[in-house]
Amino acid sequence: MFLLLTTIGIFVGVLIGGVGVGGVLLVPVLVFLAGYDIHIAIASCMMSYAFSGLVGAWMYARKGSIRWNTGAWLSAGAMPGAVLGALIVQKLSADWVTLVIALFIVFAVISSRRRQPASSTITTMNTTSLATIGLVVGCGSAISGTGGPLLLVPILVWCGWPVLGAVGLSQLIQIPIALLATLTNYFYGTIDILLGLCIAIVITLGVTIGANIAHILPVILLRKMVMFALILAAGWMLVHAARGLYF
Predict the structure, then answer these.
(1) CA dihedral of residues 100, 11, 30, 138 (deg, nearest 10)
(2) How far is CA 208 from the centre of its chain?
(3) What is the pTM of this model?
(4) Residue 116: closest CA among 170, 156, 172, 150
(5) Which of 58, 90, 142, 228 lies 20 to 30 Å from 80 when distance is taken between CA atoms?
(6) What angle do CA 179, 125, 153 make, to 5 degrees?
């Protein structure tokens, strides 16, 4: 089980660093394979994203794939959003949290099928729009335990951003989201610190690999792999949530 979870963690980190979608798989793995309570799984994953976000942001910054002024406005909105999301998830039952995460996975599947912009030109967005996007991403990420990339990447791509620029910003935004959500979750006592540190080590290794892959190789194969994994996870969690809520 340890080797399996480590392998999955590295794989998830590769997806986070390479295509920005992958963190949503961590919570289902911890809940259904390792038997953790879903609230503890979410809080521990959020803690780990502070570390992987630092490494991912550093690597993308080295390659010139982060616009810092844009990241600052996104982060300004994401911080209160992360606190709000962490407060909301404390009030939800495990079945409702499972349903929410499953819906986020469905969103990720749909967004992954969208054709990416061929141009490397970055769309100009006003500060209010950026802060609003950050608020939505911060809240949704803290509720689902996904860290930020799952929501931010497809939103920015829909707005016309090139995928590398979107993934780069998603690495950066993980840091304030993870820190604020973790502080809130710590107050409620739902964090397993040892688990969070273990997750941080394996996904940070994966993010390092994924960030390099994203700047060297086409991401078509990675996208197909993550689509398959997301579809399986979404189906399993939807069935589990439906059984708990209605049967």
Answers:
(1) -40
(2) 15
(3) 0.79
(4) 156
(5) 58
(6) 50
Q: Tally the C-alpha atoms within 13 A of residue 77's C-alpha that lie toward its C-beta.
A: 20
Alpha-carbon span 78 to 95, nearest angstrom: 26
Q: How far apart are CA 172 and CA 95, in angstroms?
A: 31
CB atoms within 10 A of CB 228: 11
User: Along the 247 residues of the chain, how does pLDDT read in single tens digits?
Assistant: 778 878 888 888 777 777 666 677 788 888 888 888 988 999 999 999 999 889 889 988 888 878 899 999 999 999 999 999 999 988 888 778 878 777 877 776 676 565 555 555 556 788 999 999 999 999 988 988 887 887 888 788 778 787 778 888 988 999 999 999 999 999 988 899 999 999 999 988 888 887 777 666 665 665 666 567 667 667 766 776 777 666 5
Round to whole Å and give the CA distance between 150 and 105: 9
Q: Which tokens sit at 53?
A: 């976000």
Rounded-to-integer distance, Cα 175 and Cα 58, Å? 11
Max CA separation in the chain (angstroms): 52
* Distances from the Cα of 224 to the Cα of 16, 19, 201, 227, angstroms: 14, 11, 25, 5
List the one residue out of 170, 110, 161, 116 whose CA is nearest residue 140.
170
CB atoms within 10 A of CB 159: 16
Rg (CA), the chain: 16
Contact predicate 49/10, CB 8 Å? no
- Cα separation, 243 vs 182, in Å, equals 30
